[in-house]
Design brief:
- By secondary structure, the chain is mainly alpha-helical.
- A hairpin with a 4-residue loop joins strand 2 and strand 3.
Amino acid sequence: MALINKLFFLKPNTVSIFFKRLKVRIDYSRVPDLKDEELEEKFVRGSGPGGQKINKTASAVCLKHLPTGIVIKCHQSRSLVENRKTARTLLLNKLDNLLNGEHSVENQKKSIEAKKHLERIRRRNKLREIKEEWKKHQQDNQEL
């Protein structure tokens, strides 16, 4: 009841967005946890653009998940801390895809985007039909 009372004070656009967000929820309960004892972490020298600084410092991160054998090498920035965070995120995504398949977070997001795309196409076609009917009606009225 309190929720309904709060909705009356919101703008109309906000209410519709609010209800749309309630319909689509991503299930994060199946995402595996990364335990530090299951990870082997190495810091290696990076390669690529950046010159001497990149070639001399060990800022690239190699993460290996011991139970599955998945290895991730991350060297997206010059910062070791950022590379560690990025490598853990990439490893978690890869592990989630491996264990959960079509129920992984990435695949759930893809299916939501596909549904949104189909809905946009449906709305576009419906609007096109309405416009064609209106033009036909206008032409019929001009002929009379």
